[in-house]
Amino acid sequence: MKLTWLGHGSWRIEIEKAVILVDPALDANPSFPEDRRDEAVAGTTHILITHGHGDHTSGVPALAKRLGVPVVGIADLVTFWSESEGLDGTGFNKGGTVDLNGAKVTMVAASHSSAMEGRGGQPIYAGHESGYMIAGEGHVVYFSGDTDIMADMDWMGDLHKPDIGILCAGGHYTMDMARAGYAARRYFDFKTVIPSHYRSFAVLATDAAPLRVALPGVEVIEPEVLNPIEIAPRTGATA
Questions:
Q1: Which H or E element spans position 57?
Q2: In whole angstroms, what is the distance from residue 170 CA to residue 226 CA?
């Protein structure tokens, strides 16, 4: 498995036979090096979306068309794009699981908001915000999407038992490093935690030290843009 940060909240996840771009709003991502776009998207099989905000969806329809790959996410948004943009899409909802080339992806709750900008700056409903449990190669990755701490994390950790957490932790728009650490410690049994949605816009955190302090005994990896984090396969995990 390879987990590659594309900056801000955008990721490339290579798992089983899938190459999944998660929230690849590369046009609106100040941390993404534009001259490495071809490298970042090479071999993509699917695009997975957590919610409708522009820093997660800007440019996604055009990217999906250029790559010729399906967009997967909350049914409301994917249906809208399928009808308005002519995209190949797989829409589903919380509690549903889809198979992406061997990777089992289950949509779970998040606590945030979700809309896109329409004419005159008016918001357009984009379905509910979500996170994902991504199971494959003996691991379960919890991709939190944009969220705060929520009680749902209790059953999510107990049922899915993710060992890897990619957690939004920049603060201001989502939980910050300390809150992400609290959530990880209270609700999950992670072996590895990777912060996300930070080191991009001025209001967001740039230092993951509070997350590391909150999680003694857990491997906290600060990602570097386009530097893959490799995770060896293991047995025994289920979605």
A1: helix 54-57
A2: 19
Residue ranges of domains in the chain = 2-230
Q: Which of 152, 235, 167, 199 minimizes the C-alpha distance to 7?
A: 199
Measured distance CA(136)–CA(143) in Å, rounded: 13
- By the 8 A CB rule, do 127 and 77 touch? yes
Residue 206 is which amino acid? Answer: T
pTM for the whole thing?
0.96
Q: Where are the alpha helices (DSSP H) in 109-198?
A: 152-160, 177-187
For residue 101, the Cα-to-chain-centroid distance in whole angstroms is 18
CATH number of 2-230: 3.60.15.10
Instruction: Report yes or no: 211 and 195 within 8 Å, Cβ to Cβ.
Output: yes
Question: pLDDT tens, 126-160?
Answer: 999 999 999 999 999 999 999 999 999 999 999 99
